[in-house]
């Protein structure tokens, strides 16, 4: 049986590119999404029409009951999980830190920190040799914002990705002898819809001239790095980080 990957937030942007590439490489793919059913269904239809296997499962990864239901759906519909891409993430309108309130902070922490923690825990309970599994790989999708700080835009988002970087190291070391590798990609400015959530859909084009490579990245360029970190080609890499950011 082929490898089984769960891509959280697999319906749009980097997650959709990762879902498509994983299917092309022979993975059976669970395309998770939170709200936009039609977009997730379109990714699944595209994979199936190319001869691949995929299912779409709605679940908010920040809610533990929904995460449990999501992983049970993978068990039932695709078979034993061998890979997790913790890709789902969000941001909100650009502002300064002194304008942030408690409710927004709670939303950002729950989507960008609690979600990947809950999903990683569910994946480890299935893949770890300590739990009777046969091993696997986890890739966390962080951001260059974790080291740049995103001043005047979203320091909360940047800090949430800093937490994901810490989790990558800690979890990688916890499960290094249990057959699971845990790594992280940190994309730079990538052409996806996430920038509209910050109130600036054209953000990549505005900043691109100032980037070392003078352009933003494409979701497919991030997906290639994710698939390499999932694959046996990276068998001696764990607890490490790949910045896919055009030199930024
Ligand atoms: P995107 O185009 O906005 O897509 C986000 C995806 O995540 C959608 O499939 C969305 O589903 C899903 N999602 C959001 N919150 C969720 C939740 N709580 N539970 C389940 N699914 C959820 O984003 P993107 O730009 O591809 O970003 C993907 C990841 O890369 C994020 O972690 C982001 O922080 C990171 N990243 C992006 C960039 C960039 O420049 N684009 C740079 C660095 C890092 P629905 O559509 O159904 O809501």
Compute the CA-based radius of gyration.
17 Å
Give average pLDDT, whole number. Answer: 98
What's the CATH architecture name?
A: 3-Layer(aba) Sandwich
Number of domains: 1
N-to-C terminal Cα separation, in Å?
40 Å
Sequence stretches where pLDDT stays below 50 over 5 or more residues? none
Helical residues, percent: 40-55%
Structural class call reads: alpha/beta
Strand content: 15-25%
The SSE order reads EHEHEHEHEHHEHHHE
Please give the largest β-sheet: 7 strands, parallel
Q: What's the CATH first level?
A: Alpha Beta
Strand order of the largest sheet: 3-2-1-4-5-6-7
CATH level-four homologous superfamily name? NAD(P)-binding Rossmann-like Domain
Q: Provide a count of the helices.
A: 9
For the secondary structure, the number of strands is 7
How would you sum up the global shape?
Answer: globular
Bound compounds, each kind once, are: NADP nicotinamide-adenine-dinucleotide phosphate
CATH topology (fold) name: Rossmann fold
How would you characterize the overall build of this protein?
The chain has 248 residues and is of the alpha/beta class. The protein has a single domain (4-241), classed as NAD(P)-binding Rossmann-like Domain (Rossmann fold, 3-Layer(aba) Sandwich), CATH 3.40.50. It is 45% helix and 15% strand. The chain is built from nine helices and seven strands; from the N terminus they run βαβαβαβαβααβαααβ. It has helices at 13-24, 37-49, 64-78, 102-127, 145-148, 155-175, 194-197, 203-207, 219-230, and strands spanning 4-7, 28-33, 53-58, 83-86, 136-141, 180-187, 241-244. The chain has a seven-stranded parallel sheet with strand order 3-2-1-4-5-6-7, sandwiched between helices. Helix 3 runs parallel beside helix 4 (102-127) and helix 4 packs parallel to helix 6 (155-175). The chain is globular, with a radius of gyration of 17 Å. It binds NADP nicotinamide-adenine-dinucleotide phosphate (NAP). NADP nicotinamide-adenine-dinucleotide phosphate binds at residues 8-9, 11-15, 32-36, 39, 60-62, 87-90, 111, 115, 141, 143, 187, 189-190, 192-194.
């Amino acid at each position: 049986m082929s490898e089984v990957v769960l891509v959280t937030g697999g319906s749009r942007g980097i997650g959709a590119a990762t879902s498509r590439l994983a299917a092309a490489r022979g993975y059976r793919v669970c395309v998770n999404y939170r709200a936009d059913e039609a977009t997730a269904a379109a990714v699944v239809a595209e994979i199936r029409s190319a001869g691949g296997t995929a299912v779409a499962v709605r679940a908010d990864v920040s809610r533990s009951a929904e995460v449990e239901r999501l992983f049970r759906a993978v068990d039932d519909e695709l078979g034993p999980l061998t890979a997790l891409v913790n890709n789902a993430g969000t941001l909100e309108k650009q502002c300064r830190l002194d304008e942030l309130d408690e409710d927004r902070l709670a939303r950002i922490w729950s989507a960008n920190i609690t979600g990947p923690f809950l999903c990683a825990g569910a994946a480890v309970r299935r893949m770890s040799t300590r739990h009777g599994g046969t091993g696997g790989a986890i890739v966390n999708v962080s951001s260059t914002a974790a080291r740049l700080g995103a001043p005047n835009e979203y320091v909360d988002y940047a800090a949430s990705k800093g937490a994901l970087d810490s989790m990558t190291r800690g979890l990688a070391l916890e499960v290094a002898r249990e057959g699971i590798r845990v790594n992280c990609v940190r994309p730079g400015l990538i052409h996806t819809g996430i920038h509209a959530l910050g109130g600036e859909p054209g953000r990549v084009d505005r900043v691109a001239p100032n980037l070392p490579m003078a352009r933003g990245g494409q979701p497919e360029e991030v997906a290639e790095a994710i698939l390499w970190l999932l694959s046996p080609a990276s068998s001696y890499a764990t607890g490490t980080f790949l910045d896919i950011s055009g030199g930024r």
